């Protein structure tokens, strides 16, 4: 297992990805991770090797009926259980400190702007802490619920977790929430390999 292998596995810890993104010269920007300093051919070889070793698997790309064997760049790739176990052994995540935040825009109100947030964690305390920091900026309601099971990633689930849902109708409030979420400590796991 070399540095390139570890970086590829780390790029895929959170979400499966189109293999073309892994091979892009801008993969570091796409994944917001340190660059893999290797040529496309080397990265392609390492992906194939990781697939053969059972750390990665190809999923059919949306619209394809089956995985086209050997054609990297036309499929979605992700970690297997073995790859996820390896990622955890390298990066030593403390899932109790991890926060998953997803936001998306929906049909707008009179000023054309509505963004919904779904922020989740294994601990209710973590979400209470976040809510205390942003509550005074919220003009609409929110809900905090227990969910069971809770999926931290596409490969990691827990018996329970908590979910904070909020709706924002002003871009400046979204900017504040996004800034706050980006400022959360990233020390729940070891840093990426450089």
* Succession of helices and strands: HEHHHEEHEEHEEEEH
Q: How many domains make up the 3D coordinates? A: 2
| pLDDT < 50 stretches | 64-68
Top-tier CATH class of the largest domain = Mainly Alpha
Query: Largest beta sheet, briefly?
Result: 4 strands, antiparallel
Please identify, by name, the CATH architecture of the largest domain.
Orthogonal Bundle
Whole-number mean pLDDT: 87
Task: Please name the CATH topology of the largest domain.
Answer: Arc Repressor Mutant, subunit A
CATH superfamily of the largest domain: Winged helix-like DNA-binding domain superfamily/Winged helix DNA-binding domain
DSSP strand tally: 9
Strand content: 15-25%
Rg from Cα: 19 Å
Q: What is the share of helical residues?
A: 25-40%
Overall shape: it is globular
Q: What structural class results from the helix and strand content? A: alpha+beta
Quaternary class? single chain
End-to-end span in angstroms?
15 Å
Output the strand order for the largest sheet. 4-5-9-6
Number of helices: 7
Write a structural description.
- The protein has 194 residues and is an alpha+beta fold.
- It has two domains: 3-91, Arc Repressor Mutant, subunit A; 95-183, Endonuclease I-creI.
- It contains seven helices and nine strands.
- It has a four-stranded antiparallel β-sheet with strand order 4-5-9-6.
- β7 (150-151) and β8 (157-158) form a beta hairpin.
- It is globular, with a radius of gyration of 19 Å.
- Mean pLDDT is 87; it is low at 64-68.
